[in-house]
Amino acid sequence: MSKMEVAKYIEPYVEAYRRLAAEPELWLKEMREAAITQFALIGFPETRQENWRHTELSRLTGYTFATARDYPLDDADIAEIQSHYHDIDGGARLVFVNGWLHDELSTLGRLPDAVVISSLSNAREALGAEIDEHLANYACYDRHAFIQLNTAFMTDGLFLKIPDGVELEPPVQLIFYSKSEDAPSINHPRNLIILGKSARATVVETYIGSPDAVYLANPVTEIDLAENAALDHYKIQLESGAAFHMATIQARQARDSRMRQTAINNGALIMRNDLGSVMIGEGGDCKFFGLYLPQGEQHMDTHSRLDHAAPHCTSTELYKGVLDDRATGVFNGKIDVRRGAQKTDAVQSNHALLLTDEARVNARPQLEIYADDVKCTHGATAGEPDTDALYYLQTRGIDKETAKAMIIAAFASEIIEEIAVDAVRERIQQIVWDRFLP
């Protein structure tokens, strides 16, 4: 790509930032300036970069995205948002529209004393120094264009802080709704989750949008888990089929902390998830599970990095994909074991079902090990649904399409069963059946 072409894609974002920077109340301006300066230097990633070799962004860069405005919601918007409510039994539910908290559709539920849950913008006003201590410390923007854009333009999102020893029993539900009207829009939610020593929480992030709307959702979630803390984190991506979704989730785990992250992807024209956790204390445990279901011309890309920086840590990663039509998928998972991180136990695998000859998946599991007393395995498989199982079900009187749907559901169930929140698990099971049952 020529310098002129690069400048054409970059300049609208730089101009938009200049308008934002003119606002006197803008916070963390020095960090934002650094991020947009980096973006202006490197621009959007291209396929000549190894980590983007299989994800071509011309369909995204072909649009000029305007910064999302606070469009009013009509009855159809509200109905769509409410259709994704889960029975959270007194838990908090925060709804964000184009990246901004929508007070009328949100509730804080019943919170234990000393738990802080708020929009990030409100929390920043009350807890400025504490917020600044964490933001961009885990999701670094130095070489990642979409984190750079989020850092420069971040507006609002979740702030959750749970003090030492407190267990937040009902799940926290976040719904991010994107809406475009006059032109394709872009929004940059920023979520910050901080758990103190021995704290417990469950967080469910759901991303949806106006049907058939063109927009770019660019969320970043940063997570800090103190000693013996435990977080169950779910991310449900059900964006418009014409949308783009570029997300980052990055965690830091202290001694004996536990994190379980499950990602379900069934929307967006192009989707990219960058997932990571750094286990800085002994005894940490991290589990990544994922299910991706692209169809048509959809492209879904997951890049993960599990960084074992301390001894006696464990990690498990299992991703499964079901690809239909001319859909494409990418799984690039990396396990790093640093020097001194002895007794590491890490398992990583990706399995894909290809329902047509045109569907494609590119899998690249990786190990980078600098310690000698470890147990690490990785692997990947791809193929069509089991013909023997299909034949067996048909001999039992089940028609071919229903039998095929049963095989797909069984394949996906290993991931779905990892969802401990009943309402979320049942919703995902229904999505799979609706997709593949004739």
Task: Please explain how this structure is put together.
This protein is α/β, with parallel strands linked by helices and 438 residues long. The chain has helices at residues 3-21, 29-42, 58-61, 75-82, 120-126, 128-134, 145-153, 387-395, 400-416, 422-436; strands spanning 66-67, 93-97, 100-101, 116-119, 158-162, 172-178, 185-187, 190-195, 200-209, 215-217, 220-225, 230-237, 244-253, 258-265, 270-279, 285-292, 299-308, 314-323, 328-337, 345-354, 360-369, 375-383. Strands 1, 4, 5, 7, 8, 10, 11, 13, 15, 17, 19 and 21 form a twelve-stranded mixed sheet that branches. The chain has a ten-stranded mixed sheet with strand order 3-2-6-9-12-14-16-18-20-22, with helices on one face. Strand 2 and strand 3 (100-101) form a beta hairpin. Helix 1 (3-21) packs antiparallel against helix 2 (29-42) and helix 9 runs antiparallel to helix 10 (422-436). The model has no long low-confidence stretch (mean pLDDT 93).
Q: Could you give the count of β-strands?
A: 22
How would you name the oligomeric state of the polypeptide chains in this document? single chain
Helix run count: 10
Strand content: 35-45%
**What is the overall shape?**
globular
Q: How much helix, percentage-wise, in residues?
A: 10-25%
User: N- to C-terminal separation?
Assistant: 44 Å
What ranges have pLDDT less than 50 throughout 5 or more consecutive residues? none
Q: Biggest sheet: strands, sense, closure?
A: 12 strands, mixed
> Rg from C-alpha positions?
21 Å
Structural class: alpha/beta
